[in-house]
Write a structure and sequence with these properties.
With 200 residues, the protein is α+β, with helices and mostly antiparallel strands. The protein has a domain of 124 residues: Lambda Exonuclease, Chain A, CATH 3.90.320.10. It contains 8 helices and 5 strands, in the order αααααβββαββαα. It has a 5-stranded mixed β-sheet, with helices on one face. α6 packs across α7. The protein is globular, with a radius of gyration of 17 Å.
């Protein structure tokens, strides 16, 4: 895509997560402007509420757990380079001189970090690298419903390339308005909020 088409256009990590679930989410949300009423989703709202409570009652508990030097909370970042914007729960300053995102999830940890949580962390890492011009080698996810279990996510160059490719594809769908192929996982269509208007 040329620069003029994407100048001043930003994608959020939530949009990338929706794209990964099914590329057609982007078409319905961004091209047809049909909302999926995210504000009604219980876990999203509950997660935000718990995060706010943690900040009020024990602001240093994760910092102590990870041994980081300092942190910034609720950091809004935007990158022209990656056409990406979002609010990182915490930016951690680690003792090795690198930075890391920390994201809180109001969910249980079940034998591995979900692909969506991993992608979100990678996207935050891109934002942090571009904004602070510091290396980001890993991120953390705090699973609140598993006694605030913290899992580390190491990044590879392939992770960053894959995340950038997803952003590029979302920009193409949004800017050119083409109808992408649906997810190959048909089971996802059963509970999809767009199932009544989507061509199967």
């Amino acid at each position: 895509m040329n620069v003029a088409e994407t100048q001043g256009v930003y994608i959020t990590p939530s949009e990338v997560i929706e794209y990964l679930y099914c590329p057609r989410f982007i078409y319905f949300m961004n091209c047809l402007e049909i909302s999926q009423h995210e504000d009604q989703r219980y876990k999203v709202l509950k997660g935000r509420e718990v995060h706010e409570e943690r900040k009020r009652n024990n602001p240093d508990y994760v910092r102590k757990k990870l041994g980081c030097a300092s942190r910034e909370m609720d950091v809004y970042l935007a990158s022209d380079r990656y056409h990406l914007k979002g609010k990182v729960d915490e930016v951690l300053y680690l003792s090795d001189g690198t930075l890391a995102p920390l994201d809180y999830k109001y969910t249980e940890y079940k034998e591995g970090v979900y692909r969506t949580h991993r992608y979100q962390s990678i996207l935050y890492a891109l934002l942090i690298q571009d904004t602070y011009q510091r290396e980001v080698k890993r991120g953390y996810v705090c699973y609140i419903r598993s006694n605030s279990l913290i899992k580390e996510i190491p990044y590879t160059e392939k992770d960053f390339q894959s995340a950038q490719a997803a952003i590029e594809e979302i920009l193409r769908i949004t800017q050119r308005g083409y109808f992408p192929k649906r997810t190959p996982h048909r089971v996802r269509c059963v509970d999809c909020c767009y199932r009544n208007i989507c061509v199967q």
